[in-house]
Design a protein that fits this description.
- The chain is α+β, with helices and mostly antiparallel strands and 308 residues long.
- It has three domains: 69 residues, no CATH class; 77 residues, no CATH class; 119 residues, no CATH class.
- It is built from ten helices and 17 strands.
- The strands form five sheets. It has a six-stranded antiparallel β-sheet with strand order 10-11-13-12-14-15. Strands 4, 7, 8 and 9 form a four-stranded antiparallel β-sheet that branches.
- Strand 14 and strand 15 form a beta hairpin.
- The chain is globular and about 65 Å long.
Amino acid sequence: MSANRGDPGQGSGPARYPGTFLLAVREALSSMGWEIRRLSGGTVQCVDAQGREQTIGLENIYRRARREDRSTWPELIAGFLGSVPSEQLDNPPTDLATVADRLLVRLGPPIGKRNELQIWFQPLVEPNLGVCLVIDYPQSMSYVTEQMVTDSGQGGKVWLDRAVENLAAQTPAECFQTIHADSGMRYCAVGDAYDSSRALLLDRLLPETAADGCLVAIPGRDELLVLPLTAAGLTQIPALKGIAEKSYKSAPYSISEDIFWVRDGQWFPFPVEIKGENFTVTPPPDFLEVLQRIAPMEDDGKREDAEE
């Protein structure tokens, strides 16, 4: 949708959906007084009740709807699309200083343009992962554009730092739960639409892992998995990868099925390939020093305390 709307979807999505879903979309839009101009692939171009042009991504809506009974789809879709506060529609902010207390940060792939306005974006791992800034509302959010940053007279890092601080302030101290005792694998699911973004707070939330960093999975917007780097943790890399791949396929706001090594605010790809009962990793060069320290190589070529 446009930059002053909610976030119902990114990308074009698959080209085909069940006919019952498309009928539900049409029924939902009709009930809202929205006129469909074009339905193609994974998007619907329409004009809303106030005469504003809107482009809706269907993929994330479908991922959410398919979990519910089909008879509820029209109402669910209409409720989702109609949840944007009127202040966001009619009075979109242009001065970042006036909404500084509502700035937050999102992780994900590059978004590009919305209504010809380029969304501000800073890469973390080229080319598919980075951060953008959003203005948070009670039931939705809007993206911060490059033009808004330029007009503020301050660089994007200033607003990114503010957004990270805002996120830290609304993050519960005990936001992680341990899901595997031996390895210390943790899961964060506060459920406020910013769980994946909390990967930017790891040095604060898990200071004991700061020296070596963590392996991180962010399959969707509302999921963050963290695996501390220990000898026991290394044996759980296939499990972490498996969870990431499975969750990525069903997450309403999917981000990545990949694993990343995050240390001192830097993000590195950590490719993992699983074949049967075996797995292969291709760590970045700097990781090898950490690996040798936490699981030293023995004379026979095997690593101490490593099961695999």
